Amino acid sequence: MSGLYAGVFLGMLSETSMNIALPDLMQEFSVTSGTAQWMVVGYMLAIGVVLPCVGFMLKWVRAKTLALFALICFLAGAIVCTIAPNFPILLAGRMVQGVSTGIMLPTMYAAIMRVFPPHKIGAANGVAGLTIMFAPVIGPTLAGLLIGAFSWRAIFAMLAVVAAVAIALTAAFFVTPIERTRPAVDIPSIIASAVGFGCLVAGVSLISDMGFSVPVIGLLAVGVIVLAFYARRQFTVADPLLDLKALRIPAFTVPAVMVSCSFACTLAFMYLVPQELQRGLGMDSATAGLLMLPAGVINALCTLLAGHLYDKYGAKRLVWIGVVMAVIGGALFIAIGVGSPVALFLTAHIVIMVGIPFIQQSTQSAALHSLPRELAADGSTILNTMQQVVGAIGTAIATCLLGLADTSTQAGFVTGSRYGYAFGLALVALVLIGSFGLREPRR
Fold it and tell me: How far apart are the first and last CA of the chain?
């Protein structure tokens, strides 16, 4: 699994390391914050478009071949971004990286369901969660140091090096544990998937720049209508692109919604925090990155711990612990002002990074554990699609809320960030409500 773990870590590292570089990109390419935000949302848009097709791809293509293809795409995208002369080329390379991550995420989880016995799925997901949850925290630290020492281009050079390592590990060690059934290709479903998810995420993302204008409303309407057609078709065709029967299993659907909300909360905070440190509290990128490091180390330990605790105690109690910690951390973030001491930020960041893994890992494991083996590949694709689409929407909403304040001043940027943090706490509240509907699988 080392190659897949490295590949997914690479994808999530790329997803969040850009947040701290956005001010530099805005200055170098003379673009607005809404345009620069596409480095984050465009990446997630590419992930959301390709993710629903991965379960089907795994039924046709050897998992090892698909993983190597994805990693080579990521390497190519990183090289393009490193040398990009303008913002459109930079964004194109970035979206190629998103396609790669969209393939790697469900491939990793589908492989976990085949490689590990049921009583070790929690621990295996703990390691997988380490690659996913540690990256959003270590990413800004590495990015800040690289920007301080070199420039934002060094971030993509670093990603290219990690991609080469992931390719070597995958080629050397990964096997193909997923059987190929080669079902019929349903072209209408492929088109509907790309159009539906693409329009939905693009529409939400453009609200921050264009408001609820006619083009934005049109994109949202097309996205919803096409996705409704897509979902109906998956239940009626003989060989669906994505088998949605997993959504009829409450023990899967409830934790899937919960993990999506917690993931959106994480991305919203990781989008706001490094920018608030720079534009709200006046710190340079290297200092902002270093301040995010302590919580990253603690987050890694808690992610591994949560995976092991799930195998012993199940999900519900771990979710409650995580919710309490996330609420405390979010409240502390709201209390941060322009003149707040660094200790307050460190405390808030550490507390919330303790809470999120207990929610994320327990709900992820509960969702996967509830599925029969024949739905493992499709179920992991559904789970990851939900996370990425909801995460993209959550980041876009956080951007809109940030724009409600006057972000040209430090005090205004802090105020706008508070609106985003309040939105994150609302997502945590949804997780708490969902926890009462969790059904623990048989041990």
Answer: 24
